[in-house]
């Protein structure tokens, strides 16, 4: 009999968004969007009539979780009853005895793993789910180590086992000793699982090893400027004696972009502002969170007041921050003729550049920093 699963992970409700250095007001907007995204996931499950929902960890950020969000979660899950929801806690929402997974009040349709060993949960007569929980933020154990599925009984057909886990699928166990709950695709297959529904990686991917399929749905929303891939949830359709069908459903409402703007050709600020606004309009960035990086050789007349530039263009973005990676352009031959300390500095550096070719990059950096210091400009180390 056909069976459908909506699988997601790594929503990170109440995330601080600290790594992106967003202002408090903007980070609050992002956190509110994560809540709305959970509601959209529930709506998809209801509209598509999912037989079950699986959550492979990091549903929320435990250290930031508010009582309001915890109550919100329970309410949204209860609204989907009687559809069962299965949760395998991860490193950010670990399920130790003081967690809301063990101390909170959850509706009857929510099933939560609270043991660090794989335990079976029946989905239907044809399928069963095996899941385990992280009990701390730095779980390093391999949940499949020494694990073996029970031997088939003589009572007829056995349900197809499905793995639900927050874990890192790696090529081998020597890649990185700091990896969270590492396991290999070969171990998944050797343990007897033909389908593994995992979480931890924020980029969606479907991995195959022989006849076993491993699904990472990715995070439903990006959580910073380093996450610019597609984000969403996975829809799994199961039929006995057929390979599982996996469909990735794009979902993200948040968009983080890092964009380079070349300042060359801009002799004064209005020209640079026009270039930025033209790019924002052409790319339709009015709802995007954008980190602008100014690059290239800046004309001596161009004043790069980053706060002022940001205030002039912020209305064209959902949020914008500006970083200056541009280099000031100087007329070095003219400066070398000066009978000043600056002129002597330039002459010495040009001589070093001519004779110390192996250190050309180093002396070029030093020349730029020195001239910026003479101009009393802010120096940003590269």
Concise structural overview:
The chain has helices at residues 24-48, 67-78, 100-103, 185-190, 269-283, 306-313, 332-336, 341-355, 360-374, and strands at 3-8, 52-55, 85-87, 110-112, 119-122, 127-131, 160-166, 168-169, 182-183, 195-199, 205-209, 212-216, 232-238, 245-250, 256-262, 289-295, 297-298, 319-324, 327-328.
Overall average pLDDT: 89
Helical content stands at 25-40%
Count of separate structural domains: 2
Low-confidence stretches: none
- The named CATH superfamily of the largest domain: Metallo-dependent phosphatases
Share of β-strand residues: 15-25%
The multimeric state of the shown protein is single chain
Number of strands: 19
Q: How does the overall form come out from the CA principal axes?
A: elongated
Distance between the termini: 60 Å
- Strands of the widest sheet, in order across it, are 4-3-2-1-13-14
Largest sheet: 6 strands, mixed
The level 1 CATH classification of the largest domain is Alpha Beta
Task: Please give the radius of gyration in angstroms.
Answer: 27 Å
């Amino acid at each position: 009999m056909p069976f459908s699963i909506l699988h997601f992970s790594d929503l990170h409700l109440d995330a601080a968004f600290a790594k992106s250095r967003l202002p408090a007001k903007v980070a609050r907007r992002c956190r509110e969007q994560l809540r709305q995204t959970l509601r959209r996931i529930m709506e998809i499950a209801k509209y598509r009539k999912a037989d079950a929902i699986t959550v492979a960890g990091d549903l929320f950020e435990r250290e930031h979780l508010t009582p309001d969000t915890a109550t919100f979660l329970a309410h949204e899950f209860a609204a989907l009853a009687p559809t069962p929801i299965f949760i395998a806690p991860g490193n950010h929402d670990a399920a130790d005895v003081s967690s809301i997974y063990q101390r909170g009040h959850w509706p009857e349709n929510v099933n939560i793993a609270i043991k660090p060993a794989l335990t079976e949960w029946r989905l239907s007569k044809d399928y069963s789910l095996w899941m385990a929980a992280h009990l701390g933020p730095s779980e390093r154990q391999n949940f499949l180590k020494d694990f073996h599925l029970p031997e088939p009984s003589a009572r007829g057909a056995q349900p197809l086992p499905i793995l639900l886990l927050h874990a890192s699928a790696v090529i081998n166990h020597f890649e990185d000793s700091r990896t969270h709950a590492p396991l290999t695709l070969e171990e998944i297959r050797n343990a007897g699982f033909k389908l593994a529904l995992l979480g931890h990686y924020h980029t969606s991917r479907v991995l195959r090893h022989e006849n076993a399929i491993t699904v990472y749905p990715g995070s439903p929303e990006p959580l910073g400027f380093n996450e610019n891939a597609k984000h969403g949830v996975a829809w799994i359709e199961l039929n006995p004696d057929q390979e599982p069908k996996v469909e990735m459903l794009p979902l993200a409402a948040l968009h983080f972009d890092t964009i380079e703007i070349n300042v060359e050709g801009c002799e004064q600020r209005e020209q640079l502002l026009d270039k930025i606004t033209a790019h924002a309009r052409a790319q339709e960035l009015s709802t995007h969170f954008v980190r602008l990086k100014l690059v290239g050789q800046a004309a001596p007349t161009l004043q790069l007041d980053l706060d002022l530039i940001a205030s002039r263009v912020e209305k064209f973005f959902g949020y914008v921050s500006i970083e200056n990676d541009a280099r000031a352009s100087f007329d070095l031959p003219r400066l070398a003729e000066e009978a000043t300390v600056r002129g002597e500095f330039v002459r010495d550096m040009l001589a070093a550049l001519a004779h110390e070719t192996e250190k050309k990059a180093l002396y070029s950096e030093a020349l730029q920093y020195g001239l910026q210091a003479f101009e009393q400009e802010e120096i940003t180390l590269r």
